[in-house]
Amino acid sequence: MEDLASLDRVRVVLSHTSHPGNIGGAARAIKTMGLARLVLVNPRRFPDDDAIARASGAEDVLVNARVVESLRQALEGCVLVAAVTARRRELSAPVHWVRDAASELMAAARHGEVALVFGNETSGLSNDEVALAHMPVMIPANPEYSSLNLAAAVQIVCYELRLAAADPGAPPPVSGEGLPAPHEDVDRLVEHFERAMIVSGFLDPASPRRLIPRLRRLFARARIEREEVAILRGMLSAFEQPPGKPD
Amino acid sequence: MEDLASLDRVRVVLSHTSHPGNIGGAARAIKTMGLARLVLVNPRRFPDDDAIARASGAEDVLVNARVVESLRQALEGCVLVAAVTARRRELSAPVHWVRDAASELMAAARHGEVALVFGNETSGLSNDEVALAHMPVMIPANPEYSSLNLAAAVQIVCYELRLAAADPGAPPPVSGEGLPAPHEDVDRLVEHFERAMIVSGFLDPASPRRLIPRLRRLFARARIEREEVAILRGMLSAFEQPPGKPD
């Protein structure tokens, strides 16, 4: 959890967005990844009910959004600016994949403000807008159909920023997870299986095939737990009793 | 570009989806990442105009979607199943982050069918549904607001699957990019700057500060191109001419 606080220094800038629903979707994407700052350059409709509907719990991001008239205003004070684009550009700076760009942006965000710029849903960013950025950024995509929805592109970019800001650590533990069984308990379980299989006639000790090693492999792979060992041993003991004879 | 073909063996399964718009958004997300197979378990409304509108060019994914009545049917034939979930589960298999899960899924997809299951927008997956999967998968998110839109979650998962299937290689080259200037040309450019600065009085050779090393550092960092060297040298020559004297 190195530097999630740096996410506060990231501006997500949407330029000339046509559909307010996408602004709401972007706000939600921003908040899910722990970012907060949305800047809108000349949105066609904002504020708007569609934006609120799609934001779904991230209205605070919309309420705090800055609306400005030019991309230059949106970028004031930024030390590193990336422009998300789906197509190759003439004479731009070298293109970065989003994962690499996210590392660079979060490194810069330790010391200053950074921005990610997204263009209009249909026409994307103009060449003049891309020229204001330090690097064009692309999301790896299907070359035959690379048209990500605007909010979906914001979601991927913010996801990569979050992962670049801080390693998420180990996944959350599963509640109700038991203690792993000690080695000797697993040994006794396997022996119990073997005994019960022989008694039942299922396993012929003269030609044991690979039954027992396979069982052992299964339990090892599953990292069998204490309680599961107890359940299986109880079951084997029950199988060993002749049926229909209560005590 | 190792194994993008394996993406054809990935099923994206949406269980009990309420909003057809999300089905359309998921179809678009799937196609942008080069996947194709959508399975719908008891969608509330499908087919639907909202799904088509949000699919925006990915209608083929909707047309080819399978609609089934139970998650078991959706998973028939799958050798590895992951369930995307936003919360901890009792007694489930160990949780994987989506990036690690994507590697495991694409490794399994070399030899068989795999599936990713997404639950209802509000209630998520039931415990019974998660129990049918080999692993619960989580997307790292803001712990205070982890509610990703369904189509946005599908977008991130499919993005990670695409990257797990194949390294995207170098980013696309910038068209119009020039040839890097050879070392000696940069040397001559820096000398030219120095000369012009001295002649103009801007640089005092007796106390040069660090002007020239800084210029050299700037050009090195920019990997200055041949044509840019030519432009700057032309400019310097013009500055060296006394003004107002044609020829």
How does this model look, in words?
- Two copies of one chain form a homodimer.
- The first copy, chain A, contains ten helices and seven strands.
- With 247 residues, chain A is of the alpha/beta class.
- The longest helix of chain A is centred in the C-terminal third of the chain and has 18 residues.
- The interface between A and B is large, with 48 and 48 residues.
- Chains A, B: It catalyses: uridine(32) in tRNA + S-adenosyl-L-methionine = 2'-O-methyluridine(32) in tRNA + S-adenosyl-L-homocysteine + H(+); cytidine(32) in tRNA + S-adenosyl-L-methionine = 2'-O-methylcytidine(32) in tRNA + S-adenosyl-L-homocysteine + H(+).
Mean pLDDT of chain A: 92
> Which structural class matches the secondary elements of chain A?
alpha/beta
Q: Let me know the largest β-sheet of chain A.
A: 7 strands, parallel
* Share of helical residues of chain A: 40-55%
- 3D shape of chain A: elongated
Q: Which percent range describes the beta-strand content of chain A?
A: 5-15%
Uncertain segments of chain A are none
Figure out the total of helices of chain A. 10
Q: How many angstroms does the end-to-end distance of chain A come to?
A: 59 Å
Assembly level: homodimer
| Spatial sequence of strands, sheet with the most strands of chain A | 3-2-1-6-4-7-5
| Largest contact between chains | A-B, 48 and 48 residues
Report the radius of gyration of chain A as a whole number of Å: 29 Å
Order of helices and strands of chain A: EHEHHEHEEHEHEHHHH
Number of strands of chain A: 7
